[in-house]
Automatic annotation (TrEMBL):
The Transcription initiation factor TFIID subunit 2 Ig-like domain, residue ranges: 566-676
InterPro entries linked to this entry: Aminopeptidase_N-like_N_sf, Ig-like_TAF2, Peptidase_M4/M1_CTD_sf, TAF2, TPR_TAF2_C
Gene Ontology molecular function, alphabetical: chromatin binding; RNA polymerase II general transcription initiation factor activity; transcription cis-regulatory region binding
Residue stretches spanning the membrane: none
UniProt source species: Anaeramoeba flamelloides
UniProt superkingdom: Eukaryota
Record flagged with keyword Disulfide bond: no
Protein name: Transcription initiation factor TFIID subunit 2
Length: 1238
């Protein structure tokens, strides 16, 4: 049975934050003979009132564990992330099965018709996940599509693989307006309520459904489509021609074509078998093969396109109207609305050009007839919530004509909202682990559109900065193809998004842009066919690229999708004059164990031309010789003509040792890599900066020159800064590189050079005073800001800031005049404040002057609020940078973080910086104080969920960066060690983070970042707050289980196979000494519970060994463990051989008589040697029973090994080994135990 239509009716109550809804599902019956007894729907967070089947009430069952903790308290909390991860995985599997069970008691009546109707009535009160009610600055409600969880606000069949049409009704208060999916069919008022009716005839998944309700002002833009139907047919024919050209080399015989198809199918099956994703079954693989076969058939007709007369796209932008209290003046509200309309018109003025470029590039019309953009406050700038035919964005990306800062970033968000409608809504993914595909394709398409609007140099510069960001953020690298729900949270992080885009760019560079366009065109056109699933997945993309290139992408998959590999390339070159050869040595350094493999381009610029060479990288070290075509001719001039018509006359000098000007490795930046190019002569970088017009080459050259401390380097950078032919960001990078040249080799002239250049451009020559601001020339404006930052970074030989630099920046701030400027100077003032943070004055009076200027900006922002209070946020950041230089007052930050009248952005900065300005003695208590404050229910309810996740993420990243940083920084202590070794706050911090993470009613993103924060501080093992100050190896833990081992453990219901191996040597020794060992037989079939020997240290007494939380293992074999090692009770006295009887009054169990049976353990181990379950942690034992035993001094029971543990709500005990088993371990430190279910 499949759902073909769903009708959703919602009544919204803002006062009580409540939604009453009716979800009606229309299902068709495929096989009337196989109608199930019941069906399961996904429901969470709300209360089911009634369920009707064909308008008749039916029985149902609901298993909703939304408000229950992940790890139940009844099972005993061990505070172990390994246990939490396994429990959470099982809970997510249960959620995927469905929580609402509806009994189909009328199966005979259902078999008489082809379809039936289910109606579910429910009530949602004060939701916490997926739908948010907001009170300030005005009331509104919106849905959150992240993590694909629509069942948190309406009952549905949740699956990304199925889609159907929707019909939505909204009943809201009279003054409110609703924006949702599809076309607004009707809107009328009834009983002081407004009714909105939306129809969506395009089938989509339930996760693409959403709405937003509030009071809005709107702007409509009509965009004419760039393509007509003839262009689409021509585009489709071009694709067929390309496919036909690829198949020209094949023979025309049908038998040979069938053999080739069979070989391709075999290759696809092999690649899919090697894939580590276990969610894909055999049926999914067959579907992938069918999709790949459709890709080869270019002659099929394309159906389902829009009518020919539909040549316009209606785009409507909505912005929330603020309700201002105590404003009775007329025209106040209308001026606010006019301001919002002006902002939206200014921001969206490039939208028509973006739509036309995307349609032209893809050869495909916009997939929907309507496109709505909704701008909301209380959202961070980078948040984009996409739904089918409409998108929710942050109001902070709106700007006016007087704003000139961050225009590229704001336009990129608008373009990304547009491209996500093609890839993400119309064409969606099959599994959440495929999210990188739509992020990468939509993101790359947005950058290509940005290139159309702002030029190729801007596109290349953004590509450089993205690659540089991944290199700097390598300690936080993420895996793209992620399967586990606790590690799937990074899909919304910047690192995950940028890496997805760069991986798609690498795939484009392999096939070429024209072929890349054809592939995207084919994917979109295939989605318009009847009965198309409109899905895209990883194996399908890899298979398409393999067919398009004939290459094997297995290594590519493992390098860039399944690992966080970022290779480091170190290259050196030397010219051999006798052989006229250039010897290139390339060394590949990895940040991961997986080796980097790929085809690397080497470009050699000689006197007679440019020559490209390709080198296949397969190992770490590579040496290859390149024959130099040119000959060395001194004192000869060469004329170089560029594409833009520029002519450069270049003359070889006397000191040139070779005819090779310079060498470039991976010149187009086709790989994610860190490149270090060692120079072979002093003139190489000068030649590259003068001759090369590529932004990538210029940027890399300036970065190398910044580390080359020499007077010539300062001269080259100075000339680059003054040359207007260079791209403006390149000139800014040259200014920053000059600041690093302030050294003894350059005569300490860098500061004077920068100040002289700044005065030349921006000071009045006659008066010697800075000119009033004039930002009409954007290049000069960005250059002015870049030089200011560069000047602030100038340091003397004592690493202090020269006095002239401090006075210069103070004067810039005091005499800033923006009265004659038509543009806003808020971002310019923020940049001056940021420059204050880089200063290290020697005189304390200078610090007082800096604080006075910062306080002036804080007061200015209170009287005349800046855009998003950017002046206040920047001031708090700069004050925090003075840590360890002057004494900072925490009360300043406390006032901003506790005042609810400030925005969430200001409070985040106050909390974050107020925490990390603490001294070494204050930090643990400060961390506990702030953690208790931000985890309180009042704070969580009043804070935006997006900003709350951002706050925890910033704290976790700071702790992890401080933990991993090995270089010398201004931090004089390790935050993580302080938290772990504090006997006062350690246990409280652990419980607070654990309790919040263990809530079932929090957002998945918040749980994921709390999971990481807990791991950073305490690790994945069981924290031991009662035994601090122990050796380092006791705190050292092991990595979490491999997913194969985890899944095999989850599938075992009645069979627990406990394997704890201390080393491979023990395993071999164990198998050599005995081929068969007696084990205890359980009455239940296949319920053999086996524990392998573990090597431990012999304790003096049993009680000393059974200390809670201890960890014992050998340091030599620590890398070979696959789980946490926990001590097991040791029995030394054996009373009986085949039975155990305890008849005294203090016994825990009645008399037990067990039979034994010999089994071949060697064969058992060979059949399945790597089955694992989570290890037994000592904190999981019944501590109350252990304490009672110790109080009664019942050593007999302790020695007999009777200790209780609960696994999955079932009670188990340890049984002592027999004499035969103990004899095997005689004379060794190895012990054997059997786990028995009671």
């Amino acid at each position: 049975m499949d759902v073909y239509h769903q009708k959703l009716t919602l009544s919204i109550d803002f006062e009580n934050e409540c939604i009453g809804g009716v979800s009606e599902l229309f299902l068709k019956i495929d096989d009337k003979k196989k109608i199930p007894k019941s069906i399961h729907l996904h429901v969470q967070q709300y209360t089911i009132k009634d369920v009707f089947l064909n308008k008749k009430e039916v029985k149902y069952q609901v298993k909703n564990n939304f408000n229950k903790p992940i790890v139940p308290e009844s099972t005993g909390c061990s505070f172990s992330l390994v246990e939490f991860q396994s429990t959470y995985s099982r809970k997510m599997q249960k959620i995927e099965r469905g929580q609402l069970k509806i009994f189909l008691n009328q199966r005979k009546d259902l078999s008489k018709s082809d379809n039936f109707h289910i109606s579910i009535h429910y009530v949602l009160k004060k939701p916490k996940v997926a739908i948010h009610f907001v009170k300030k600055p005005t009331r509104y409600v919106y849905t959150d599509p992240r993590n694909y969880q629509p069942y948190y606000w309406f009952p549905c069949f949740h699956s990304l693989r199925f889609h159907h049409t929707f019909e939505l009704y909204f009943d809201v208060p009279e003054k409110y307006y609703v924006i949702s999916n599809g076309q607004l069919s009707e809107n009328f008022k009834k009983n002081k309520r407004s009714i909105f009716h939306y129809n969506l005839n395009e089938p989509i998944t339930p996760s693409n459904i959403g709405f937003v309700c509030g009071t809005f002002s709107d702007v409509q833009i009509v965009i004419k489509h760039n393509l007509n139907l003839d262009d689409e047919e021509n585009q489709n024919m071009n694709l067929e021609e390309v496919e036909d050209d690829e198949e020209e080399d094949d023979d025309d015989d049908e038998e040979e074509e069938e053999e080739d198809d069979e070989e391709d199918d075999v290759d696809e099956e092999d690649d899919e078998d090697e894939d580590e994703d276990e969610d894909e079954d055999e049926e999914d693989d067959d579907e992938d093969d069918e999709d790949d076969d459709e890709y080869d058939n270019g002659d099929e007709d394309v159906e389902g396109r829009f009518p020919e007369d539909n040549n316009e796209l209606l785009c409507t932008a909505f912005s929330l109207i603020y309700e201002k209290k105590n404003t009775n003046e007329k025209g106040k509200n209308s001026s606010n609305i006019n301001n919002l309309i002006h902002k939206m018109r200014t921001t969206l003025q490039t939208l028509p050009a973006s739509v036309k470029y995307c349609e032209k590039f893809l050869g495909f019309r916009f997939p929907y007839e309507f496109f709505n953009l909704v701008f909301l406050p209380n959202l961070p700038e980078n948040v984009i919530l996409s739904f089918a035919s409409f998108t929710i964005l942050s109001e902070k990306i709106l700007y006016t004509d007087s704003s000139i800062d961050d225009i590229h970033f704001k336009q990129l968000n608008i373009i990304l909202a547009l491209t996500t409608q093609f890839f993400g809504q119309f064409l969606h993914i099959k599994n959440p682990c495929d999210h990188w595909i739509i992020l990468g394709i939509a993101g790359h398409l947005s950058y290509l559109t940005l290139r159309c609007l702002f030029g190729n140099s801007e596109f290349l510069y953004q590509k450089i900065k993205n690659n540089e960001f991944l290199i700097k953020d390598k300690n936080f690298a993420e895996i793209l193809y992620n399967y586990h729900p606790l590690t799937r949270g990074p899909i919304n992080t910047k690192h995950y998004r940028i890496k997805s885009i760069l991986v798609i760019q690498m795939l484009e560079s392999i096939v070429g842009q024209e072929m890349y366009r054809n592939i995207l065109n084919r994917l979109l056109f295939d989605a318009t066919k009847k009965d198309s699933k409109k899905i895209v997945e990883t194996m399908q993309i890899i298979s398409i690229w393999r067919k398009a290139t004939g290459m094997n992408f297995e290594d590519f998959r493992h390098q860039w999708l399944y690992t966080s590999l970022i290779p480091k390339l170190v290259c050196s070159a030397q010219f051999v004059k006798k052989k006229n050869e250039q010897v290139i040595e390339l060394k590949v350094e990895q940040y991961q164990k997986q080796p980097f493999q790929g085809l690397l381009k080497v470009r050699v610029h000689e006197y007679n031309g440019i020559f490209d060479y390709y080198k296949k990288i397969e190992s770490k070290d590579h040496n290859f010789n390149v024959f130099v075509v040119s000959r060395l001719h001194k004192h000869k001039k060469k004329q170089i003509e560029y594409e833009n018509g520029e002519i450069l006359i270049f003359q070889l000098g006397k000191n040139n040792p070779s005819p090779v000007f310079y060498i470039r490795i991976d010149p187009e930046l086709n790989w994610i890599r860190e490149l270090i190019l060692l120079k072979n002569n002093d003139s190489m970088w000068r030649h590259e900066l003068e001759l090369e017009r590529s932004v990538i080459s210029q940027y890399e050259t300036i970065k190398r020159l910044s580390h080359w401390k020499h007077e010539d380097s300062l001269e080259i950078l100075h000339a680059t800064l003054l040359d207007i032919r260079y791209f403006c960001p390149i000139r800014v990078e040259a200014a920053k590189a000059i600041a690093k040249q302030n050294c003894e080799e350059s005569g300490w002239k860098a500061g004077e050079v920068l100040i002289e250049i700044f005065k030349k451009y921006y000071f009045d020559i006659e008066t010697g005073i800075i000119k009033p601001n004039d930002f009409s020339d954007l290049d000069n404006y960005y250059l002015q800001k870049g030089i200011i930052i560069a000047i602030s970074r100038v340091k003397d030989k004592n690493s202090n800031t020269p006095k002239m630099v401090v006075d210069f920046l103070l004067n810039l701030s005091k005499y800033n005049d923006n009265s004659e400027n038509e543009y806003n100077d808020e971002h310019y003032c923020c940049l001056i404040i940021q420059a204050f943070g880089y200063l290290f004055p020697e005189d304390e009076d200078d610090y007082n002057k800096l604080f006075e200027e910062i306080e002036r900006y804080l007061e200015r922002d209170k009287l005349f609020p800046s855009e998003d209070n950017i002046l206040t946020r920047t001031s708090l950041q700069t004050i925090a940078k003075f840590q360890n230089r002057v004494e900072l007052d925490f009360e300043l930050f406390k006032g901003y973080m506790t005042d609810v009248n400030y925005s969430d952005g200001i409070r985040i900065e106050a909390i974050y910086h107020g925490l990390f300005i603490a001294t070494k003695e204050e930090f643990p208590n400060r961390f506990l104080l702030i953690l208790e404050y931000i985890t309180s229910n009042e704070f969580i309810e009043e804070f935006s969920p997006f900003y709350y996740v951002l706050l925890i993420k910033k704290i976790a990243k700071k702790l992890r960066l401080n933990k991993k940083t090995k270089t010398k920084t201004i931090l004089y202590f390790n935050y993580v060690n302080l938290l772990k070794t504090s006997t006062i706050t350690n246990e409280q911090i652990m419980k607070i983070i654990w309790n919040l993470m263990n809530r079932g009613s929090i957002n998945i993103d918040l749980r994921n970042i709390l999971f990481k924060l807990y791991d950073i501080i305490f690790g994945i093992h069981i924290p031991n707050p009662f035994k601090l100050g122990k050796s380092k190896r006791e705190f050292k833990t092991l990595e979490s289980y491999h997913k194969n081992k985890y899944d095999s453990f989850q599938q075992q219901k009645s069979f627990f196979h406990l394997e704890i191996l201390a080393s491979k040597k023990l395993k071999k020794k164990y198998l050599k000494k005995s081929d068969s060992i007696d084990f205890e037989k359980n009455n239940i079939n296949n319920d053999l519970l086996i524990s392998n020997p573990i090597k431990v240290e012999k304790p003096e007494s049993v009680n000393n060994h059974l200390s809670v939380g201890s960890t014992i293992y050998d340091d030599e074999d620590e890398d070979e463990f696959h789980g946490n090692i926990s001590p097991l009770p040791i029995t030394q006295n054996i009373e009986q051989e085949n039975k155990i009887a305890i008849n005294n009054n203090n016994s825990l169990f009645p008399s037990i008589v067990e039979e034994r049976k010999e089994i071949n353990y060697t064969e058992k181990l060979k059949q399945n040697p790597f089955q694992f379950i989570p290890p037994i942690h000592p904190l999981s034992f019944d501590l109350q029973v252990m304490n009672e035993l110790q109080e009664k001094d019942d050593n007999k029971n302790i020695q007999n090994g009777f200790f209780i543990r609960k696994i999955r709500n079932k009670t188990y005990k340890f049984i002592q080994p027999s004499k035969k088993e103990l004899k095997f371990f005689q004379g060794t430190d190895e012990f054997k135990f059997i786990l028995k279910r009671i």
